[in-house]
């Protein structure tokens, strides 16, 4: 028997088959139909699901249930997606029931960052971990918390938002209405935005200035590359982001003490240029009462974590 | 049937009987024998336990198990207390097995702050809560986290240390080796220490100066009372502590999203003089994406939370 995991993204919809032991089978992806209506989006999700089932010569009778990982805000208990970045018509959509009706299968909805963390926990970088925290360094900082093998949702389905942990009292204003949130200091988007401001405001002699002038914008990758080439401002900006990321990881240890913190998202493509200074800061900022026991490492499933984890959530929900 | 909970403190040892439904029976306390050896401390714990059993006309056959709440650092899995504030000879003591042998009953060890949180969860301010966080504003800031009715220990028994969440990057040095920990800004001890420094360094016109000169020291209660009497410096110091406490509560909401955050410890005796400004700061610092749903309130069991919670841990461990 199988569960289907669907990862609904703003640009891409992906489905995967996962068996009870956590082995992933076929994967199928297609662009999310962003120019129609909710029914069109559900149609795309159903098509992706059907493709992976048929690719293995199976029918719906071989499928125990479907897990859907979706960007937030959502209500898991009510199965509703309240809003979706980039797709204005996906507002207050009863996604769980629509997909369930379309596929005639039981469906469970889950936050995409939680699903991705659960995917890594089940069959990625979480091997032999009981408690795992995942941070996605993308436009914002997404996160999912696994405690004792279960996703931490919180009492009001609002938990696990590590990107909005306040790290700098009275710090930079964040889109969430708070100031000084972690994601304001180390998401790819804000790192680039902060650099752009610094270059524009008081141009230091930096290679980034030429890139900014030529492209009209810079991104985290430009900063990483300029740093590698020895650019001083790029090094400073990169190091500051990594410092705050390490602070966030230390707080995760104090509060949750997981086996592992796994990182994913664009900025992790920098590899050891991210992880080496991150571990340095982490060790330095960590308390001296015990040695650091939580491992900070790279996630291993890449962009498949969300769909695989969604299938895992379906197994946990419908598998007994 | 009953479980016995023992709260081992640096100055006082207390035992309580608790039935399966969470009803507390007899309580007995005695000064912790601090001038002998570990066997003497265990003797005191056994005496307290025996007293509450006998007070109800019961024998050890009516007791399912014993829970011991102890100050840290401890190893729950190994049943060892590594060190105890104020009692130097309580170092690397196999407390669980010593108490078990003495009473001839199964014993489980738990961190005292976790036990207290569990006590409030079971039969105190945690009524109808599934997830609860407790903060004790004492010499330091102790804390316990209950998720889904279970104590969060973390993968290495190091979780739930909210007092050492870093709130101010590069801030005040903390005894733990980190800088800017929550407890450096809002424990009773550090609030008083910070005030003393300010009064001594550049004496502003404050009533606290006279108190400091007369007593040689000031405490959080002096600050609270001077604030009530309109002292400006006292108000400033109090408000700063409450601000950081509110920041910590906001972070707890972002990460754990509990039903309730309950506060206890000396500073909570200030009542609404603590809670009113705390809620103001909390609402102001909270993100705007949702209204605050987590309730911040006073713990209800006072100094009995630890022993009652320890009995609850015994029920959870031995009750099935």
Question: What would you report as the Rg of chain A, rounded to the nearest angstrom?
Answer: 20 Å
Mean pLDDT over all positions of chain A: 94
Within CATH, the superfamily of the largest domain in chain A carries the name: ATPase, nucleotide binding domain
β-sheet strand percentage of chain A: 15-25%
**Strand element count of chain A:** 12
CATH architectural designation of the largest domain in chain A: 2-Layer Sandwich
Tell me which protein chains meet in the greatest interface and how many residues each side has: A-B, 49 and 49 residues
Q: What does the oligomeric state look like here?
A: homodimer
Helix content of chain A: 25-40%
Q: What is the number of helical segments of chain A per DSSP (H or I, 4+ residues)? A: 10
CATH topology of the largest domain in chain A: Nucleotidyltransferase, domain 5
Helices and strands of chain A, in order, run as EEEHEEEHEHEEEHHHHHEHEH
Which class best fits the helix and strand makeup of chain A?
A: alpha/beta
Sheet having the most strands of chain A: 5 strands, mixed
């Amino acid at each position: 028997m199988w569960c289907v995991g669907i990862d609904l993204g703003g640009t891409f919809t992906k489905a995967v088959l996962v068996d009870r032991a956590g082995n992933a089978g076929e994967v199928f992806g297609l662009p999310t139909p962003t120019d129609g209506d909710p029914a069109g989006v559900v149609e795309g999700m159903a098509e992706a699901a059907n493709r992976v089932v048929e690719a293995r010569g199976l029918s719906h009778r071989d499928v125990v249930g479907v897990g859907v990982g979706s960007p937030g805000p959502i209500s898991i208990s009510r199965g509703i997606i309240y809003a979706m970045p980039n797709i204005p018509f996906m507002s207050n959509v009863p996604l769980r029931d629509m997909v369930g009706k379309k596929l005639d299968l039981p469906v469970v909805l889950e936050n995409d960052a939680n699903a991705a963390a659960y995917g890594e926990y089940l069959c990625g970088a979480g091997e032999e971990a009981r408690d795992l925290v995942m941070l996605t360094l993308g436009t914002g900082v997404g996160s999912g918390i696994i405690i004792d093998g279960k996703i931490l949702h919180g009492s009001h389905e609002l938990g696990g938002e590590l990107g909005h942990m306040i790290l700098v009292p009275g710090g930079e204003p964040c889109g969430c209405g708070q100031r000084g949130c972690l994601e304001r200091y180390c998401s790819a988007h804000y790192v680039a935005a902060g650099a752009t401001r610094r270059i524009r405001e008081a141009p230091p002699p930096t290679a980034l200035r030429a890139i900014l002038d030529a492209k009209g914008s810079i991104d985290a990758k430009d900063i990483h590359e300029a740093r590698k080439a020895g650019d001083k401002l790029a090094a400073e900006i990169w190091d500051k982001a990594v410092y705050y990321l390490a602070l966030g990881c230390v707080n995760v240890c104090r509060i949750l003490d997981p086996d592992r913190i796994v990182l994913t998202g664009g900025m992790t493509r920098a590899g050891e240029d991210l992880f080496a200074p991150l571990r340095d800061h982490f060790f330095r900022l960590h308390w001296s009462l015990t040695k650091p026991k939580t491992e900070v490492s790279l996630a291993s499933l890449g962009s498949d974590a969300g769909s695989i984890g969604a299938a895992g959530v379906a197994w946990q929900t419908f598998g007994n």
